[in-house]
Amino acid sequence: MNSRYNFCKWAGAAALMLLAGGCQKSAQSSSAPPPAPVTVSQPVARDVVEWDEYQGRMDPVDMVEVRARVTGYLQSVNFKDGAEVKQGDVLFVIDPRPYQAELDRAGADLQQAETKFELASNDLVRGERLLKARAISEEEADSRSNAARTSAAAIQSARAAVEMAKLNMEYTRVTAPISGRIGRKLITEGNLVNGNQGQATLLTTIVSLDPIYCYFDADERSIIKYQQLAREGKGDNIRDGKMACELALADETGFPHKGVLDFVDNQVDSATGTLRVRGVFANPDRILQPGFFTRVRVPGSAKYPALLIPDLAIGTDQGQKFVYTVDATNAVEYKIVNLGPMVDGLRVVREGILSNDWIVVNGLMSVHPGAVVNPSHAPLAATK
Question: Taking the model in full, what pTM does it have?
Answer without folding.
Answer: 0.71
